[in-house]
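quick one: WTA bound model?
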Amino acid sequence: MSAPSSAIQSTLVENRVFEPSDATVKAARISGMDAYNALCAEAEQDFEGFWGKRAREVLTWHKPFTKVLDESNKPFYKWFEDGELNASFNCLDRHMGTPVENKTAIIFEADDGAVTKVTYKELLAKVSQFANALKARGVKKGDRVVIYMPMTIEGVVAMQACARIGATHSVVFGGFSAKALQERIQDAGAVAVITANYQMRGGKELPLKAIVDEGIAMGGCESIKTVIVFQRTQTAVNMVAGRDITMADAMAGQSTDCPAEMVGAEHPLFVLYTSGSTGKPKGVQHSTGGYLLWANLTMNWTFDLKDSDVFWCTADIGWITGHSYVAYGPLAAGATQIVFEGVPTYPNAGRFWQMIEKHKCTIFYTAPTAIRSLIKAADTDEKVHPKNWDLSSLRILGSVGEPINPEAWMWYYKHVGGERCPIVDTFWQTETGGHMITPLPGATPLVPGSCTLPLPGIMTAIVDETGNDVANGAGGILVVKKPWPSMIRTIWGDPERFKKSYFPEELKGYYLAGDGAVRSADRGYFRITGRIDDVLNVSGHRMGTMEIESALVAKSDLVAEAAVVGRPDDLTGEAIVAFVVLKRPLPTGDEAKAIANELRNWVGKEIGPIAKPKDIRFGENLPKTRSGKIMRRLLRSIAKGETITQDTSTLENPAILDQLAKTN
Ligand code: WTA
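yep, here:
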């Protein structure tokens, strides 16, 4: 933690309150605040009974569990441990013979607008056939499979097929570089990669298979025995004989029947890498039973899902949101969902609104960054303003990934939701598996910019550095006091890091989220004030400052030292600013620009384009204390363009501040 809780202050006062309409309350699953409070009280009174009841109601168990929670080896909590089930069975097979069987599971809209639909029955056949193909390629229960695919039906099929045979998938976002992919393959010890030849985004054909080849060629990926390639486009790619096969060839002749492999509730369903406060990404390991329970239950609670809903979560399957609210939650809940391949600005910035109208979307879930960029687009071009489309099908809006500023909230509420749709501002993390703090559409009065209250059974609180509760109105550290079913189980291959990162001793064994927060004095509503560790949130994507620093210093012919901080940005929430000391004299003018560009591209290659610093500043040194510690708070001030008013008397080299303040 770099900032003490006393430094986390609340400056924003928001007085607007939006009550849910009577009709919404009446029709809702959790109807009104009394119903919400009753659920919270139930969880308080009988914590294990509360979760056990939900797990029995929401999931189909092959073998029922006899114990809800095992706390004997904290913080390695186990949920429903002796129970057995299969996640894919719970998303697909379970609906057979019910009205969901012939319901549309996925409405897929490709980048170019072409639409493909699959029913639950068809999806089950596809998943089973691909699961058989995986088995035929030697993939088995307990193996890890890396998935590097675009947003497609096949991407979901790949994830579900792994789950079906008990293989643990690790999806790597298609925007990550060969190097990042190689590191993840190696860390997970994956036996197979499922990829596509290309992906289509914004009218462009972007390579995926070539990046897989490049990553594997970097070495250390000897565990990979097979690479399965979905042919998204007609363009041919290099295929390595004996290792690579197309998805179509792998599936040819395979049966569309593949009984689901039952696994223990704690069996790792997936590992998803995310940024932490060191250079190395963390493989967040999730369970099968607890994770799926929460993915399904939150579909019903947070989105108040009805049979007739058309649900659309715009997140990529490469992120946790695309796991819980594309690949698993909607299917487990039997929903019809939209899966979109492209980008919100192609062919123009009206694409989202056009798609909502076309598919009669009822629940729309996206990120504040997307909303802010579409506001900007609508402000400059009337033709892409949402008013040009009929959005009357919408009934609930959602926001995820970063704090939503009240201005963006109000625009979303007014121009997209027609002042009719509640906005669920859902706070959660890769580690939490599903929603933690969020309004309920038919209960919670909304306050713009606040994620309001924790879901029933989720014991969030705000504490100081010693784990003591702080008063409402005072800022502090966000923690969760009790375990919950969909929580991270460990960091893949690094249980010590898991313990240290999330359950520091001084916090009384509470789960440390890594965010600062404040509760409002009047309602006790939570507002997230941002990360308190060295993690940035750029366009809703988590980036570790250390990760970017490591990438920069890896350019060892050029870079001696680097420090990376965040700076507030109107569009992307935060922007990456890098301070770099070169192994050559301080560059100026065009030379500085050229080197900055070279470094930006380098970081793009090391991690991925999302990690490229927006601003790179050069100095002969970095501001350090006499003991050699980089004073990041000073760098943060410089990055924001503030004059330094803080005490700099402990600095070894105060003159360096002026140098760094000058942009190149
Ligand atoms: C931030 C994304 C404010 C927060 C699901 C968290 C939010 C990090 C919100 C997790 C929200 C997510 N309001 N901040 N509604 N949702 N965050 O792991 O800083 O990609 O710790 O999971 O995003 O990002 P992650």
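Residues 275 and 281 are 5 Å apart (CA to CA).
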